[in-house]
Amino acid sequence: MSQFLDLxxxxxxxxxxxxxxxxxLLHTSSDVIITQGEALLPxxxxxxxxxxxxxxxxxxxTGPYGRTFGDWLxxxxxxxxxxxxxxxxxxxxxxxxEALRAHPGTGLVSLVHAEAATGNTNPVAEIAAVxxxxxxxxxxDAVASVAxxxxxxxxxxxxxxxxxxxxxxxxxxxxxxxxVSPRAWERITANxxxxxxxYLSLLDWKERWTDAGRTALPHAPAQLEMLALEACLDRIDAxxxxxTLARHRAxxxxxxxxxxxxAPLAPYVPREADAAPVATTLRTPPELDAAELTATxxxxxxxxxxxxxxxxxxxxxxxxxxxxxxxxxxTVLATLTALATALGADPAPAHERAxxxxxxxxx
Length: 363
Known about the structure:
The termini are far apart. 51% of the residues are buried. The strands form 3 sheets. The protein has a 7-stranded mixed β-sheet with strand order 1-9-8-7-4-2-3, sandwiched between helices. A 4-stranded antiparallel β-sheet has the order 10-11-13-12. It is α/β, with parallel strands linked by helices. It has 14 helices and 13 strands. It has 2 domains: 8-237, Type I PLP-dependent aspartate aminotransferase-like (Major domain) (Aspartate Aminotransferase, domain 2); 240-361, CATH 3.90.1150.10. The mean pLDDT is 96.
């Protein structure tokens, strides 16, 4: 333990270098600010910086985080238009365009890329094009999608892109980041309600760190979390980002294919195009409680990345968290075995389908 307690302080130069590597991961030339906390910190900071009383925001709700964003936006005094779709689908660009036409004063759109809680993913490129044509800012929650599927911040025109290290990156929950476009900085700087002298203030970071040349950190960084984030970036670089993305795609394809052989389970998100690579959700019929099935499966193998759905979904949905190191064929097969055992089924057919789907996905 002493080797972790006796580390020299993290230098400003090393902190800045890690920010630059995050920017490369996000394919952006915009400013990237690493925040010392779980990703809810920069998500709330982005919303409170960009929204203000009298503004109008379109809040796209495809899962539980969209509900949270709507609450924050209303707390900022914004008029909030919720565009909600069923949690087992994705939102379409034309739905967004229609909502923007109905509310032409919209200045901010909030969107979750991939919802790990519900297993869906949204077509960001198409949605972002509609938002940019309207002239609004786009805030994207890419916490679950980064390193599991492409996040092309600049090419898509995302103005505020927030990530965390704890899912597909395979790292800690206690460090996160936000990429801020020049358009977003203009909006935040002009917002008299934007937080200042606050842990939620992106402007404080801009003035005291980014604009000051990144030579002196405004406060002592969370060193172990920063080093863990750096290690995650090292691991992604060593594997290669395309291979990391392919591994997550394969894990999702294999899990969905294998689950179809485990009646009465079925993918919660029916359309392949709407299914997130970071996690697969499975639906149970009314007579089979998903939370009880999950508990039985975990009793068989406590190491598999299974959990019951949250809140009202706990009885009807379970989730396979095949992200980070768990995006591996062995993990998928072990999870299918645990589920088959809990169901009293033979895992062999599920394994056969999963192996075939994995092989197809990694070609």
